[in-house]
Write a structure and sequence with these properties.
CATH topology of the largest domain: Arginase, Chain A
CATH superfamily of the largest domain: Histone deacetylase domain
Largest sheet: 8 strands, parallel
Order of helices and strands: EHEHHHHEHEHEEHEHEHHHHHHEHEEH
Number of domains: 2
Strand order of the largest sheet: 2-1-3-8-7-4-5-6
Distance between the termini: 48 Å
Shape: globular
């Protein structure tokens, strides 16, 4: 496998959050995984980032979630939850998804990492982005579910859709990725593909093979139901067959992969018998497609196995040589008693998955995929600005040149993804967008061989961004200058382009 640019997102506070003493979800597992990644020296092969949670809040989360729900998550605390009993019932917060200290900040960490990772992929700054704190796939538009409050996966996919026509979501958590599937159930812009335990009342109870999507999204939801005792050989065989068919028929531009570790052998809430080798082989297979790839965490409730898994899969993503099986001594070394090794041995348990039944499932999925319209896409449109941009980078000409070169080649103009302003505005949107608009107009003029007739006042106001609102100008074509239109900060680029092309 070729070397790739890998971005790794980790916030040092993530291990401090605590659902409750009896709750199976332990954010500490992410800190343990990070420690293994460091002790094996994997961090030296990646770009390390801490999610910018100070720039991420209600407005970013409400790209998908309801305003009322997110504002509730921001307000609720263990001390005040008695005042919010009605809302807690309405938003399904309380038992499986309890209120704990720092709940909203925890949601910001997981979500900001996934969105920033998607942004790195969009801008070509990374080939692979990793956020083990993400992958919370059960959260719904206005409800918590299955230990998940904010669906960072959906937010990350929405960010990717600004640049990519088609995004493939792959879920190898033992539980069905219901929240992500539900979010994109009626669109062909995102295909969701989930391999999960189904039946016998297993949570969340969704993910039947007959659930294939609706309306424009028909056959763009792929569900592969599995039974107890799934082993490496069988899992990898049908995973590769299914994904090969999905890739051939759907031809995605980018991939998001949720690597829930509760599908591993010996998980506290799981019932599969996968080892790190089998689980990791799926990650390695997806990496081989050389698509922009966002890799996320998810479930996993035997925390020493979760940390083993995500450290190992980090090594696969950076194409590191085989890690030593003997764990190096480090801060959390005693967690791995009694076997201080990286890899797991499968348990002695029956594989209840009948190969003939699995083959029948595959054939049904394959027939559905054959009905897809090849390579669905949309017409020429303009995308909104990136959700998260480093403020210090914004101030440099280098940043502007990099962004304009990436965004405004002829190919990019002919394959725009989303209408300008389709998503909600992010914080400080206008301040960030002024520099973007300035450079974009210059690029448009140069691309279409136009002249700009900016008066001194406009040029001055562009250099002094705070005065931009008061500026205006005319932009004319080179031909007899008949196509004149007025520009101001309320005019978006789609309007500019319409007038240029007349």
């Amino acid at each position: 496998m070729s070397k790739k640019k890998v971005s790794y997102f980790y916030h040092s506070d993530v291990g401090n959050y605590h659902y409750s003493s009896e709750h199976p979800m332990k954010p500490h597992r992410i800190r343990m995984a990070n420690e293994l990644i460091k002790i094996y020296g994997l961090h030296n092969k990646m770009q390390i980032f801490s999610p910018k949670i100070e720039q991420f809040g209600v407005r970013e989360m409400t790209k998908f979630h309801s305003d009322e729900y997110i504002k509730f998550l921001k307000r609720i605390t263990p001390e005040t939850q008695d005042q919010f009993q009605r809302q807690m019932n309405s938003f399904n917060v309380g038992e499986d998804s309890p209120v704990f200290v720092g709940l909203f900040d925890f949601c910001k960490i997981s979500s900001a990492g996934s969105v920033e990772g998607a942004s790195k992929l969009n801008l070509g700054k990374s080939d692979i982005a990793i956020n083990w704190a993400g992958g919370l796939h059960h959260a719904k538009t206005d409800q918590a579910s299955g230990f998940c409050y904010v669906n960072d996966i959906v937010l990350g996919i929405l960010e990717l859709l600004k640049y990519h026509n088609r995004v493939l979501y792959i879920d190898i958590d033992i539980h069905h990725g219901d929240g992500v599937e539900e979010a994109f159930y009626t669109t062909d812009r995102v295909m969701t593909c989930s391999f999960h335990k189904y039946g016998s009342g297993y949570f969340p109870g969704t993910g039947n093979i007959k659930d294939v999507g609706y309306k424009d999204g028909k056959n763009y939801s792929v569900n592969f139901p599995l039974d107890d005792g799934m082993d490496d050989e069988t899992y990898v065989k049908f995973f590769k067959k299914t994904i090969t068919a999905v890739m051939n028929f759907y031809q995605p531009n980018a991939i998001v992969m949720q690597c829930g570790a509760d599908s591993l052998s010996g998980d506290r809430l799981g019932c599969f018998n996968l080892t790190l080798k089998g689980h990791g082989e799926c990650v390695k297979f997806i990496r081989s497609y050389n698509k922009p790839l966002l890799v996320l965490g998810g479930g996993g409730y035997t925390i020493k196995n979760v940390s083993r898994c995500w450290a190992y899969e980090t090594s696969l993503l950076i194409d590191e040589t085989e890690l030593p099986n003997e764990l190096p001594i480090h801060e959390f070394y005693n967690y791995y008693t009694p076997v201080y090794q990286l890899h797991l041995e499968p348990l002695y348990m029956q594989n209840k998955n009948d190969t003939l039944v699995l083959e029948k499932h595959f054939q049904e999925i394959y027939e559905n995929l054959k009905d897809l319209i090849p390579s669905p896409s949309i017409g020429e449109r303009f995308r909104p600005p990136d959700l998260l941009i480093n403020e210090s980078e914004l101030e440099t000409d280098k940043f502007l040149n990099e962004k304009s070169d990436f965004r405004f080649t002829e190919e990019q103009f002919n394959s725009q993804i989303r209408p300008f302003n389709e998503f909600y505005e992010s914080p400080n949107y206008r301040e960030k967008n002024k520099l973007w608009v300035k450079k974009s107009i210059v690029d448009i003029l140069e691309k279409y061989k136009l002249e700009s007739v900016f008066d001194n006042k406009l040029l001055e106001s562009f250099n002094q961004v705070e005065n931009l609102k008061n500026s205006n100008s005319n932009i004319m074509t080179n031909n007899n200058r008949k196509n004149i239109f007025q520009y101001n900060t309320e005019t978006d680029l789609s309007q500019i382009m319409k007038k240029i092309r007349k």
